[in-house]
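Lab notebook, bench 4. The sequencing result for the construct came back, and we need a structural model before the next group meeting so we can plan mutations. Quick request posted to the team channel:

Model the 3D structure of this chain.
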Amino acid sequence: MSTAVRSGAAGEVPHEATFPAMLEWLAAEHGAVTCLVDGDRATSFAELDDRSRRLAAGLATLGVRRGDVVAAWLPNGTAWVELQFAAARLGAVVLSVNTKLRSHDVGQLLRQGRADVLALWPSFHGIDFLDVLGHLAEDPPGWLRHVLLVGDPVDPDRVPPGIRSLARPYAELFGSGRHEQSAAAPDLLVNTFTSSGTTSAPKLVGHVHRALVGHAHAVADAFGYRAPDAVVLGMLPFAGVFGFNTLIAALAAGRPLVVQALFDGQEATGLIERHRVTHTTGADEMLRRILAAGDPPERIGSLREAAFASFGGDPHALVTAAEARGMTFFQTYGSSEVQALMCYPPPGADVERRSLGGGVPVHPGISVRIRDTTTGELVAEGGGEGEIEIAGPNVSGGYLHQPDATAASRTDDGYFRTGDLGRLRPGRDMVYLARLGDALRLGGYLVAPVEIESYLETLPGVGTAQVVGVRRPEGDVAVGFVVGDRSHALAEEELIASCRAELARFKVPRRILVVDGFPTTRSANGDKIQRVRLRETAAAVLDQEVSR
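Done. Here's the predicted structure in token form:
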């Protein structure tokens, strides 16, 4: 594992804990240093500071002020970053909108967040966002005052009639001078991210300047971004907390971030090779594609570390493959509520440990504890499994406009109930196992699906595995799904026989279904396996058995 280059105490913030103060400090410390590489365009810290001030002045002429909401429906790029800092300078809140969303979801999000301004890229990756916006324009939110068109000039006739009077070119906002006086404050809301939270319905998670800026410096310290040769690849959407935290941590370290607007494995490999990228973050499948495209290995030889979230496949095989190339890959931990990159592997973590989620919190002020889901009692360090509860400077203050949901997500003493299953090892090392909703109660024991999945993935012919629980009259039963690697013919009877020989009886799946692939859904943080659909399929298969 590489050693992080630290500027002081972990997470120490050398300036006022606001975005404008951070950028002013970075411009003074690293003015001519490149902070963003966006295609052929390189932007220095001094240029980003200047452009964000000019953009803030332009937004101010539109009446944007403290407390207003600026929605960013943009792909990763320089415009996204300068808009974040410009809005923060005015004391406004950025509402992050995933470019994968369409009219219904975008309209719902704008209404829920009460957006005053919407910035969008009219056309991106073959998608006509103005056409998508046309459906929303039939019934625009009453408080939406301005629509900013980013990128090349747009024919006015292309703008939907319902918002034509609100639309104006983004580029025109840079001619109003510089906004010098910051309206930001450390405890002022500055950004919101979407999350299902712990009570299923979509929510907007609000974070204040202090939380995001402090966490950025803590991540920069813990993840080694301050190394003098560090270059970070940002390939996750900035609209999601995983991509956002990567971006802001790289900036806080005073190091360049290479922007990838839309992930492609071949392109990512080319960016690593061209810019000598040393660090990145992403979904596990992204890293698999980079390793596959990195041939010969020297093409990506500069890559030292990659933090990932495991949404499917075998994390152990991924970490092992990276290890063979001299790279350190590891699962981290986070959520919209507690931010991404919250944990870094403990000192000396081997392949086995790095294949599991979690790690040591990046800031000493982050407190993690485990609560037994049966007894409700706290579990001692080194004890059993339970729900992960977190408190600290990284935690969101709550859900926007939803005080009841915020209260329901907190314990009486202020810890956030994550809805995740884990355990706490010595040395503050938290191990994430599964979402509680995915955990299985088998034979009276709480079992994380990964315990069975990791065994299935050792069997000949099995490439990846997923295990879900199905409620039956006799209690929960496990059902496995496996995708083959074509090295060995797969037969359900043989797979179950192997489980019976090697696993505790209560862990043996009732059925193991061989499938071509797992259903997935896209999110701002990567493609996730739809375990709900797997549960539905498993339940249907077991129901057929009963009906025979």
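The longest strand covers residues 462-472.
Will bring this to the meeting.
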